[in-house]
Amino acid sequence: MKTHEPKVILNVLGISDMVLFKGNEVSIKIAKEPSRDLEKDLVEDAMFALGVSVKHRSATSKYDIKDFYRFGVLIEVKNIKRDGEYYLLDIKAVDRVKIERFYQMEDILKADYVYEPIIADMEGLPYEDMLNHIKQLVLDISQYFKGAEPFVTYIEELDDIELLSGVLLQYMNITIDDKQKIFEAKTYSEKGMKLIDALIKQREMFAFQKEMSEKFSQEANKNYRRANVIKLRQNERVLCFTKHRALFSCNNL
């Protein structure tokens, strides 16, 4: 159990290709920098840091201040180990935060922040209805994937909109900007509606892809059968000639 509170200024860890929500527990990879010892920095900060998504992936894992969004999460580092040119971190997102100011010092990026919790503007039946709507959309989408039952069962057990959003967005094929907009939504209702809109678009996309695939398959089958008929007729003509049948009988095939 931790005996220290997070400092007001913490190291910033760039999160690429995903957005972390309160409650998410994931593993991330951070490139080593010659001028810093990340493990030492984290120990000095009681194993806390700020996880902030970047607007695009960098081939060198180096980012400028302008590459970061201004909302992120306070993260607790559960475990850290070195792996070649990288650190592997097991982390948990503790709370949503707003970055007040970044501080760039060579390869080290730090920031001060304020807590920015989501506003609980829904409760009871309306909140449950929104969660059920989201879960139904997940069930609809799962029909397009084999072996999705365990994932659907897991989603059914979640009753927190933040955690539910964080889990789903890891698997949704939408832009990092769209994910960040859902993350930055100020209220339960706003976040729920943005997530529902994104899920509906995903469902429509998968339905369209399935329809196109079925049409392509049907057309391919027709072409295959047509090619087989032509090939069969050609074989019959060859057989006809090899048996020295009359030419006029061959033309009647």
Structure, described:
- This protein has 253 residues and is α+β, with helices and mostly antiparallel strands.
- It folds into 2 domains: 9-115, Archaeosine Trna-guanine Transglycosylase, Chain: A, domain 4; 124-208.
- Helix content is 45%, strand content 24%.
- The chain has helices at 38-44, 124-142, 149-157, 161-169, 176-184, 188-242, 247-251; strands spanning 9-15, 25-31, 48-53, 71-83, 86-105, 108-115.
- Helix 2 runs antiparallel to helix 3 (149-157), helix 2 runs parallel beside helix 6 and helix 5 (176-184) packs antiparallel against helix 6 (188-242).
Q: Tell me, what's the shape?
A: globular
CATH superfamily of the largest domain: LON domain-like
How many individual β-strands? 6
Radius of gyration over all CA atoms, rounded: 28 Å
In spatial order, strands of the major sheet run 1-3-4-5-6
CATH topology tier name of the largest domain: Archaeosine Trna-guanine Transglycosylase, Chain: A, domain 4
Question: Which helices and strands occur, and which strands form pairs?
Answer:
Elements lengths: L8 E7 L9 E7 L6 H7 L3 E6 L17 E13 L2 E20 L2 E8 L8 H19 L6 H9 L3 H9 L6 H9 L3 H55 L4 H5 L2
Parallel strand pairs: 1-3
Antiparallel strand pairs: 1-6, 2-5, 3-4, 4-5, 5-6
Helix pairs in contact: 2-3, 2-6, 5-6
Which features characterize this protein?
single chain, 253 residues, alpha+beta, Archaeosine Trna-guanine Transglycosylase, Chain: A, domain 4, 2 domains, 5-stranded mixed barrel, 7 helices, 45% helix, globular
